[in-house]
């Protein structure tokens, strides 16, 4: 069959070449609702933390802030195999329902034990979503816009963070006398509203055509493709499935060296994404920065409002800078954006550390604010979305759910570890030296990206794994290359 004829019968190739219509964008926004909920619920605790009327020791405070991350690691690990077995759509619906339950439970928590448990339950939901959302998007997105579509996961996270702080700001300003009563409960509980909307709307999403094809549901593949704008016969779907099986060497998937290498690269990228410090100002911002930026009043509410205001500004920068990644990820590529992002983060962390250590008064406030804003902008433009994008696109369909789940779990464990350790770390050496450490870690991350992350823009998800297979295959020795009868290892 000619290449033209094969392209006409290969339904996935036709899907890859589709324009990103309004339906694709709506479907992606719905898929990334979990990103919004993740941003909202892992940030609202920073605003409510000062007013929770329960006795919290250092560990409990750290767990209250980062406990959702620990639950997210477990949720991600559980969701991966379930998504590979039962489909992406069903798990996305279940995640939204679990999230709504956890948000309501945290709002009505009678004691600290229930509150901590509810944060873990919320974590299970957002962890599951983080393991599935970008994998689902990668399985229907056209290759020319897959980067931009997947970046919406990170953009929704930033929007959720911003909304969390704006909600807290409005509530605390309107009802300052209820800060230790109803205010913190409302802040935590409002996340149930978008989650319940998500339960209803996600039930109308099409299932991933690649997942359906992998499980031999050819008639359902045809229906899913039709919703995505690709008309195909069952025979064409079956022909595509047979070709994919032949390219893989058979219907049984394996954790090949290329898949294991891809998993290592994504996991390490996620670790650097967390331990370079992006979540410190976003999680602990109101508590850390409230006194630094407070201009009037000495009450706990006034200090918290000041911290929320400056953190909301930084989060707005996060939202706007993510647009840079959205616009250029498919044009510039993953590697260049990641290296640029880590470079900007390192420089900005040093600037902020210098402001904290060497200045005082208004100059100190100005330099620290500019440095932290630039730090967040650099992360948003080059690092944040890149991690979620490669998590969804570098694995084969047969193990995408499991592999993406492992990577997401690593991300959440690194997140939990940093946020849990940070209070002790900051009190021991000071925030300035912590920022210097973050800069050093950014430098190491740049070396890693340049050495191990191949450029994936412009490739189909089936082609990308071949890039990792080639990198995982050792070059032939001089003796093997010189032998005329040598055959490549299969």
Structure in words:
With 490 residues, this protein is mostly helical. Helix 6 packs antiparallel against helix 9, helix 15 runs antiparallel to helix 16 and helix 17 (334-358) packs antiparallel against helix 20. It is built from 22 helices and no strands. It is globular, with a radius of gyration of 23 Å. The protein has one domain (9-205, 253-469): Growth Hormone, Chain: A, CATH 1.20.1250.20. Residues 1-5 and 486-490 have low confidence and may be disordered.
List strands and helices in order, with pairings.
Elements: H1 3-9, H2 11-16, H3 22-31, H4 33-48, H5 58-86, H6 88-107, H7 112-138, H8 146-174, H9 179-189, H10 192-202, H11 209-214, H12 218-227, H13 234-248, H14 257-275, H15 279-293, H16 300-332, H17 334-358, H18 361-393, H19 397-429, H20 431-452, H21 461-472, H22 478-482
Helix pairs in contact: 3-8, 4-5, 4-6, 4-7, 4-8, 4-9, 4-15, 5-6, 5-7, 5-19, 6-7, 6-9, 6-10, 7-8, 7-18, 7-19, 8-9, 8-16, 8-18, 14-18, 14-19, 14-20, 14-21, 15-16, 16-17, 16-18, 17-18, 17-20, 19-20
């Amino acid at each position: 069959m000619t290449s033209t004829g094969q392209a006409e019968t290969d339904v996935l190739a036709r899907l890859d070449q589709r324009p990103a219509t309004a339906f694709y964008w709506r479907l992606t926004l719905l898929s990334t609702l979990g990103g919004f909920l993740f941003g909202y619920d892992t940030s609202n605790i920073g605003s409510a933390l000062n007013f929770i009327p329960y006795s919290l020791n250092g560990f409990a405070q750290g767990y209250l802030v980062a406990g959702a991350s620990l639950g997210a690691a477990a949720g991600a690990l559980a969701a991966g195999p379930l998504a590979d077995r039962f489909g992406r759509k069903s798990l996305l619906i279940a995640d939204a329902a679990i999230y709504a339950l956890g948000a309501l439970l945290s709002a009505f928590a009678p004691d600290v034990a229930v509150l901590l448990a509810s944060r873990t339950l919320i974590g299970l939901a957002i962890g599951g979503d983080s393991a599935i959302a970008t994998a689902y998007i990668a399985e229907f997105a056209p290759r020319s816009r897959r980067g931009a579509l997947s970046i919406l996961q990170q953009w929704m996270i930033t929007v959720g963070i911003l909304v969390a702080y704006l909600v807290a700001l409005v509530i605390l300003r309107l009802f300052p006398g209820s800060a230790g009563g109803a205010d913190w409960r409302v802040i935590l509980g409002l996340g149930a509203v978008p989650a319940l909307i998500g339960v209803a709307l996600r039930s109308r999403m099409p299932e991933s055509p690649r997942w359906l094809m992998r499980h031999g549901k050819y008639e359902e593949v045809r229906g899913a493709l039709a919703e995505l704008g690709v008309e195909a016969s069952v025979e064409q779907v079956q022909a595509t499935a047979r070709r994919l099986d032949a390219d893989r060497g058979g219907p049984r998937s394996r954790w090949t060296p290329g898949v294991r290498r891809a998993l290592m690269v994504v996991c390490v990228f996620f670790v650097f994404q967390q331990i370079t410090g992006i979540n410190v100002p976003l999680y602990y911002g109101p508590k850390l920065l409230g006194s630094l930026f407070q201009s009037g009043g000495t009450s706990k509410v006034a200090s918290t409002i000041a911290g929320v205001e400056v953190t909301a500004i930084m989060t707005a920068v996060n939202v706007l800078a993510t647009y840079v990644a959205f616009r250029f990820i498919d044009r510039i590529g993953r590697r260049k954006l990641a290296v640029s992002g880590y470079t900007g983060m390192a420089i900005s962390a040093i600037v902020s550390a210098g402001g904290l250590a060497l200045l005082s008064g208004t100059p100190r406030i100005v330099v620290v604010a500019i440095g932290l804003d630039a730090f967040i902008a650099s992360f948003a433009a080059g690092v944040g979305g890149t991690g979620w994008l490669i998590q969804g696109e570098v694995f084969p369909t047969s193990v995408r759910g499991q592999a993406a789940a492992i990577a997401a779990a690593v991300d959440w464990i690194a997140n939990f570890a940093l946020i849990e350790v940070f209070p002790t770390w900051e009190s021991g050496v000071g925030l300035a030296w912590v920022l210097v450490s973050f800069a050093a870690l950014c430098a190491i991350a740049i070396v890693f990206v340049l050495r191990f992350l191949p450029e994936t823009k412009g490739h189909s998800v089936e082609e990308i794994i071949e890039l990792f297979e080639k990198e995982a295959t050792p070059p032939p020795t001089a003796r093997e290359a010189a032998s005329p009868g040598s055959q490549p290892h299969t």
